[in-house]
Amino acid sequence: MKLIRKQFDSLKPHFEKGGKWEKFYYAYEAFDTFVFSPNTVNEVKGSQIRDAIDLKRLMMTVIIAMVPCLLFGIWNVGHQHFLAIGNPGAAPGDKIWVGLVQVVPIIIVSYAVGLGVEFIFATIRRHPVNEGYLVTGMLIPLVMPPDIPLWQVALATIFAVIIGKEAFGGTGMNVLNVALTARAFLYFAYPSDISGDVWTYLGDATPVAGFSGATPLSIGAASLTTGENVVSSLNQFGAGWADGIFSFSNLFFGAMPGCIGETSVLMCLIGALILIVTGVGSWKIIVSVFAGTYLAGLGMNMIGANEFMLMPAAYHLVIGGLAFGAVFMATDPVTASQTETGKWIYGFMIGVLSVIIRVFNPAYPEGVMLAILLMNVFAPLIDYYVVRANKKRRLQRATV
Amino acid sequence: MGKFIRIKKGFNINLAGKAAPKVSSLEHADTFAIKPTDFNGMYLPKVLVKEGDTVKAGTPIYHDKRHSNVVHVAPISGEVVEVKRGEKRKLLEIRILADKQVEHINFKKYSVSEIANLSADDAQKAMLEAGVWPNIIQRPFGIIADPASKPKAIHISAFDTHPLAPDYSVIFKGQDQYFQTGLDVLKKFTSGSVNVNVHTTSEISSVFSQAQGVELNKFSGPHPAGCVGVQIHHIDPVNKGDVVWTVNPFGVIQIGKLFLNGVHDASRTIALVGSEVKEPQYYKTYTGASIKNLIEGRLTNDHVRIISGNVLTGTSVGKDGYVGCFDNYVTVIPEGDYYEFLGWIAPTAKKVSFHRAFGLLSFLAPNKEHKVDSNTHGEPRAFVQTGVFERVTPMDILPTYLLKSIMAEDIDEMEELGIYEVVEEDLALCEFVDVSKHNVQQIVRQGIELLQNS
Known about the structure:
heterodimer, A: 3 domains, 18 helices, B: alpha/beta, Rossmann fold, CATH 2.40.50.100, 7-stranded mixed sheet, 6-stranded mixed sheet, 13 helices, about 20% strand, globular
């Protein structure tokens, strides 16, 4: 340890004011503080001791909460690959290998490009490198299709970090969730690569007879034209090559096609548990997103104008990326509502909007992404009214 | 009848080095200091003595140019040895080499019945003359009360919930009569109530429980229940245009002693606490005692931070410093100027944390006494995490929004969000728990000063 510290200490003067690499101080600082907690002490006046937490540890906790989704996703990418090519009995090791080969490069590209942009901005604008990207860099791969071209990952990351975050002043100032901005960018810029039959990695192999790349959401959307019952369509799907793949229990478990990390509700709930127990993610938001979705689903059942509306409300909770969005995207503290009352409203509206977009807008059946981005925009407005209520209480007290 | 108020939000930081209930005497052949920097909102202190002058306990030493009737007096008798100034000749402290025996200036003594018939104006005159007036702090702003102001109420917090706070039943033992007299005098200044606020769980000293003619309010719950700002918020909040006064028990007793004994009596019991103190206990001394005299031979090592006051709101004064005039204790903790390999991720149960984020296990043993150093445990960042400040602020105030409005220097917004109700100590826990390591208390003071000067 002392040896490494010595290396840092000998390098440090070069980066400090007057040193030859002065410009790159914040890049250096990022590395130094990553390896060693800094030796800074508290000010002469004020709090003389500080909580052991810092932003790095906070962000690390979120990453750890994502690990179950990531590991499951890696296995699932391989699993779906072998299902689609008619070899469901392939060894688990093979499945994981195929998954690793697909997923790891996406993660590397996401982190390398994103952190690269962060370091460049930190150097140019002379502010410390913020830890926010530790989480964003993992979120982006998890909401990508397994077959996404790497250059698109890179492009989306650059777009998201620059336009979604740095343009607003960096972590803590951004309005939109950065990872969802990346995904939305791809969706609107390269729709053919992120919708339709992209959710299963096939490689060069030919798919098995009867294979279809449909997802539960596209089946739901299709019911609007075919008029078939959604639940029976889901249950019948996959007959012959993947029986019961869209049964309710498997939708919950998540061994089905989809984005790398979002298919398993179970894994998302494990992540949610970690976030809630550690207090890092707001349980109010997570609970209210699920509640909003379920209640909106029930509302749709009551209207019941078409088959998609009639789909049991519980299905809305397990199809698509709702659980992942609720747990990892909606809870981003910077872009969510920042008042405690506001968090209930914000989460609930995400749930409601997700269902509305799904049911009424079959052109883009995945409603969660747009619902969260939309509510990101509205979160400051919600907070504005919550804060105003606080001010009003104070004013009333004064006049009584 | 007073109120009963249950405080739910907050956090007790359980530190090692609590004082044992033992009181010793200190050698007094030493220097004492009075520090204008102990007071907020001091405009320009004008020194009234020269180096080499001899003074008695009660001799005026300086006053603020804007409030020349509010004099600050010598706590003990002796010789003025140094008028210490800092940058731009800012007055830092005036050091007095103490006599062996304290000589007092004799002010007028009053009998109990005389005190009862005393007018507020006469009482004020006596208090200003003898230098006990600066014990009265007014809200908003947390500055020395303007003698011309009429407070809507007076609040006295009779317990301290800060980490390692001394036991008031030890440091104010036997002062019942003086405390009561102080209250009787203070009552003359307000048409509203005089509130003495006590805590339910600890044993309430008879000094406070026997107090007559006041509202005795009971509080329960964790820190910051002991902060008088939090108490005022629950009893009778400060609105725009209101003025309330706060006095700490030492100040009330000092006022009582002035009227009963006719002297400016600065003798007090202070505690020396903290993990780096060999035997934490109480000492009898006077206001403005020198740290050197207090710590000599009583610390376990040299690499320490010596704090006048507590670890949340105190001031690091160093080995050559002096105890602040509002502080009942000196806390000594390890200085945290070390690097820690992967310190941001290594799991540990040793570090105290309000959070339960990855690897921070101190919540598993809530009663364990911790040794905490002065390291910042991270670097300053923009606001990211939300909802944490609210969990340690037992007031209907949105700390993050208030702080942001101060940073934006938006005075209207600050007023609407409740800046009149807070001073630094009320939001000190926010500074402790902040993930992004803001200097919350500095920001609060900036806001208050902005408001005062607007």
